[in-house]
Structure formats: structure tokens, C-alpha cells
Design brief:
Blueprint (H helix, E strand, L loop, with lengths): L3 H20 L4 H55 L2 E7 L1 E16 L3 E5 L4 E6 L6 E2 L4 E5 L2 H29 L5 H26 L2 E3 L4 E6 L6 E2 L4 E6 L3 E9 L11 E6 L7 E8 L9 E9 L9 E18 L11 E6 L2 E6 L1 E5 L3 E6 L6 E5 L10 E6 L2 E2 L15
Parallel strand pairs: 1-21
Antiparallel strand pairs: 1-20, 2-11, 2-15, 3-10, 4-6, 4-9, 5-8, 6-7, 8-10, 11-14, 12-13, 12-15, 13-14, 15-19, 16-17, 18-19, 21-22
Helix pairs in contact: 1-2, 3-4
Length: 413
């Protein structure tokens, strides 16, 4: 566009010059001068028009470029908003779910014994090693018996001597050659000698270290050739056929857990295997400090479990069949009521859920879902209510995605 005010000024100047030239009689030289002035005014008018037009064209071009830039930025923002979030979903399905209490504890062997030496001396023979199974009464090691054997021989000799004296005393008493008091004294001495012999034989038997219970040798404390003192620990035996686990259960579960209920256990040392036991004992008192009570579960060792293993336990107190369930990973982890994102028409819809029983992996859905509804399990952190989503996996199976067509870049002006 042109600036009409500049054009108007140039038009007035031109008219004044023409009028002054036509009204006044002048000489040839003066006429020539007037014509030159007219040409000069025409040139100035043309330059003014050109300057005004160029300025307006530059401003229009700058405004056009600015509009194109803003349009591109708005388009990018719209594309970004329209970009779908990749998610994984699972279909809500019906199955059996168990109501249970989950806890952790270490396995313990109630039938455990520490074998100690009942005599002193040098260990001359070692018959059991760690990991061996021994039976009750089996000899596990022997201590040098020489001293005990000599003590037995001396006691036996004393008994033989007093036994002969007692026989002669009986004959003399019958002939009334000795008094009754002398006869009784010999009899008492004989009984004391026999008790000393029995004690010496007992000490000799203590040189054989035997297993007090049947079980596995868990630890050996001495080696062959070591000096063993009285009451010194020598072995530790653990019966792994019967194991227990003591859990401290919150008081709110006391009305639900009963004696004889099924207990399932998994141990980190044996992954993938589930062991079944039962609730053996329930403490009748509550710990006032922690608000818990003791629940003792019993398990069959099955020659696999060992005392001291760390286990994860699940006490099953109810079961529901053919109920609608979803993985617990699909539930939103916030402070609001239970909810999840359901995929409907490539959109994520936040849906409130009413839950029932739940275990370590699944949760029962009482209302809010129908069988077959697809709920987001992975990618829900980046999803908002109503946002577009792209399903990349359904029930753990990948979904083929269409190839994206790359847009060609616009030619630069």
C-alpha cells in the first residue's frame, strides 16, 4: 500500500510549480529554468512513491514470515498433544482367588541338639562329618579309653575281693564265729565296690560320643587328635524332617486365622517351588508392645528344606471361585480410591474400581469392570484421563504397529 499523504504533498508541489510557470511571462532562459524545475519535481514525486511502496512491501513480507512461523509452532504443539502414549494392557478375566495373610519368617528346627563330651581325653576316632545323617544312639566319635578301662579293672578287682570276703563272712556267721555287725560291714563294702564298678563302666561308655537324636550333622567343633574336655561341644545335630516357622501376625487377623489352616511357603534358596504346611499353634496372648500374636506353622522338611532358610508365607483363610480379577500392577498407586485406566477407542479412561479379595499378584474386582475390558498395566505413569494411547502388548503378547510415514520438510523460501 502507498502513503497517500506523501502523494498528496507531491501533487500540491507539482501544481504550484506548473501554475507559476504558466502565469508569468518569462524569457527563453527563464522558461528553460522553469522546465528544469518541473522535471525535478516530477523526479522527486517518483522517488517518494517508490520509497513508500518499498517500505510497505517490506513490512508486509515481515508480517507474513512471522505468521508462517507462528503457524508452524502451533502445528508442532498440536502434533505433540496428539502423540499417543505406548502402553501394555491385560484383559480382565475370571479365576479363583484366595484370601490370605502374607508374612515372612525363618525356618527353625525344634528337634535340635548339641552333642557335648561327657568325658575328657584325646579324640582318637571321628566317625561322623558335617552333612551326615545319624540315628539316635549311633557312635559319632571316640575318646581315648585307656584311663577309663584301667579304672574299670581296678573296681572289678575290688568287687571280686569283697565278694569272696562276704562269702566267708556268711559261713562264719552261720558258725557264730563273727558278729552280725562284722557280717553287715563286709556286705556294705561289697555293695559300695559294685557301685564303684558300675560308675567306672559308665565313665568308660562316655568315651564313645553318641547321637542323642536322629538328624543331620549341622556342625562339627573338634577334629581327630584334639584334646576334649568335660562338657565341651563336639557336634550339633538338626532334625530337618520337621520344621517350624514363627510369624508375628497383626491382631486384626486373629479372628481369621485358625489352627489347621493351609500355609503355603516359598523360599529364596529354591525358586519356583511352593511348599505346603499347616498352622500348628496360635499363641493365646497378644504382645502389647507390637500388637501382634505368634502363629507357628509346621512343614515337612522333604529332605530339601533346611533350618535357617528365609521363607515367604501365605496363610489361606478363604477362597472365591470364578470371580473377575486384574493384576495388582494395573491399579493406580495414589491416595485416592482404587482405580485404573481402561482402554476404550484408543483413549485411556480413568475408572473407579471396587475391590474384594487380593493376593500377591491379583485383585478381585467387584464393580467397575466387565470381562474382557482391557486395563493398562505398563505405561500408566505417563497416561492421563482421556489421553490417546497406543497398545503395544495385550496379555503379554506384542502387537504389530503400523509403519509411520515420515513427512517431507517444507521448502525454505
Amino acid at each position: 500500500m502507498y502513503d497517500f499523504r506523501q502523494i498528496r504533498k507531491a501533487d500540491i508541489a507539482f501544481n504550484i510549480s506548473v501554475n507559476s510557470f504558466s502565469q508569468k511571462p518569462v524569457s527563453p532562459m527563464n522558461c528553460y529554468s522553469k522546465r528544469a524545475q518541473s522535471l525535478i519535481f516530477l523526479a522527486a514525486f517518483s522517488l517518494a512513491l517508490t520509497a513508500c511502496g518499498g517500505k510497505q512491501d517490506a513490512e508486509a513480507e515481515a508480517a507474513g514470515k512471522q505468521g508462517d512461523k507462528q503457524g508452524k509452532e502451533q502445528g508442532k504443539e498440536q502434533d505433540k498433544e496428539a502423540e499417543a502414549v505406548p502402553v501394555e494392557v491385560v484383559s480382565a478375566s475370571k479365576q479363583t482367588i484366595n484370601a490370605s495373610y502374607a508374612g515372612t519368617a525363618n525356618l527353625d528346627a525344634p528337634n535340635e541338639a548339641q552333642v557335648v563330651a561327657k568325658s575328657s581325653g584325646v579324640m582318637v576316632q571321628q566317625l561322623a562329618e558335617e552333612g551326615d545323617f545319624v540315628r539316635q544312639g549311633q557312635v559319632m566319635a571316640r575318646i581315648d579309653p585307656a584311663r577309663a578301662q584301667l579304672e574299670v579293672q581296678r573296681s572289678r578287682a575290688t568287687v571280686n575281693k569283697l565278694s569272696n570276703n562276704f562269702q566267708r563272712a556268711q559261713q562264719l556267721l552261720a558258725q557264730k564265729l563273727i558278729s552280725t555287725e562284722a557280717h553287715d560291714q563286709i556286705r556294705f563294702d561289697l555293695e559300695s565296690a559294685r557301685a564303684s564298678l558300675n560308675l567306672a563302666q559308665l565313665e568308660l561308655s562316655y568315651t564313645n560320643i553318641v547321637a542323642p537324636i536322629s538328624g543331620m550333622v549341622a556342625q562339627r567343633m573338634v577334629k581327630q587328635g584334639n584334646l576334649v574336655t568335660l562338657n565341651m561341644p563336639v557336634y550339633r545335630i538338626v532334625n530337618t524332617q520337621y520344621l517350624e516357622a514363627v510369624m508375628n501376625v497383626p491382631e486384626r487377623e486373629m479372628a481369621l486365622i485358625k489352627q489347621g489352616m493351609t500355609v503355603r511357603m516359598q523360599v529364596d534358596a529354591i525358586p519356583g517351588q511352593v511348599f505346603t504346611g499347616r498352622v500348628d499353634r496360635i499363641s493365646p496372648v497378644m504382645d502389647a508392645g507390637s500388637g501382634t500374636f505368634r502363629v507357628t506353622s509346621a512343614f515337612d522338611g522333604q529332605q530339601i528344606l533346611r533350618a535357617g532358610m528365609f521363607g515367604r508365607f501365605e496363610v489361606l483363610y478363604d477362597s472365591r471361585e470364578n470371580v473377575l480379577t486384574v493384576p495388582r500392577t494395573a491399579l493406580l498407586e495414589d491416595d485416592t480410591d482404587p482405580a485404573g485406566y481402561i482402554v476404550r477407542g484408543n483413549k485411556a479412561v480413568r475408572t473407579a474400581l471396587k475391590l474384594g479379595y487380593s493376593n500377591g499378584e491379583f485383585a478381585e474386582v467387584v464393580s467397575g469392570l466387565k470381562p474382557g475390558d482391557r486395563i493398562i498395566t505398563a505405561g500408566k505413569v505417563a497416561v492421563r484421563d482421556g489421553a490417546g494411547v497406543t497398545v503395544i502388548a495385550i496379555d503379554g503378547k506384542s502387537v504389530a504397529q503400523p509403519k509411520k510415514v515420515e513427512k517431507k520438510a517444507d521448502d525454505k523460501a
